[in-house]
Amino acid sequence: MAPNSISIATCRYDDMRILVPVEEPRGLESPVSEEFGEAPYFAVVTDGGVQILTNEEVMRGFRHRWEAIVALKPDVVITKEIGRPAYQALRSRGVRIYLADGATLKEALEKLRRGELAEFPPELVHEPRHPH
Question: By three-state DSSP, how is residue 95 classified?
C-alpha cells in the first residue's frame, strides 16, 4: 500500500475506481473540494483503500488537466463542479459522473453506495476558466 493510502476494509466498491477532488489529505474525513481541476488533492478510492494524491502528482507529465484525470482511469467521479473538457473526456470513456452531496469523502461514498447521488447535470458543466 502506498504511503498515503488508508485501509478501508469495511468498504467494498466491486473493483470500481472512484475519483473525488478533496481539500485536505485526511483520508475518509477529507472535505470534498468545491473545485474539480483546481482541487489541491484527489482521492482515488478502490476496494483496496483510499489513496490521496496531490494535484501536482496528478498533473506531472501532462499538459492538460483533463488528460491527467483520464490517465487515473476512474470508473466514477464524484464532484461539486466540472469543466467541459474534463466532463466530455470522462463521459466519452464511459465514466459516470455524480454531483457530490456531502461534506466529506466518507459521506459522498456512503451516498454513492446507497444510490443517493444524482448524475452530474450537464447544465452545470462550465466552460474552461483557465487557458491551457
Answer: coil
Q: DSSP string covering 21-49, please?
A: EESS--GGGPBBPS-STT-SEEEEEETTE
Across the chain, what does the average pLDDT equal? 86
DSSP-derived 3-state class of residue 7: coil
What tens digit of pLDDT does each residue of 97-130 get? 999 988 999 999 999 999 999 999 999 999 876 5
Ordered alpha helix ranges (H), the chain: 55-59, 65-71, 84-92, 105-113
- Write down the domain spans for the chain: 5-124
Cα distances (Å, whole numbers) of residue 113 to 13, 18, 24, 108, 109 = 8, 11, 22, 9, 6
Q: What dotted CATH number matches 5-124?
A: 3.30.420.130
Distance CA 75, CA 12 (A): 14
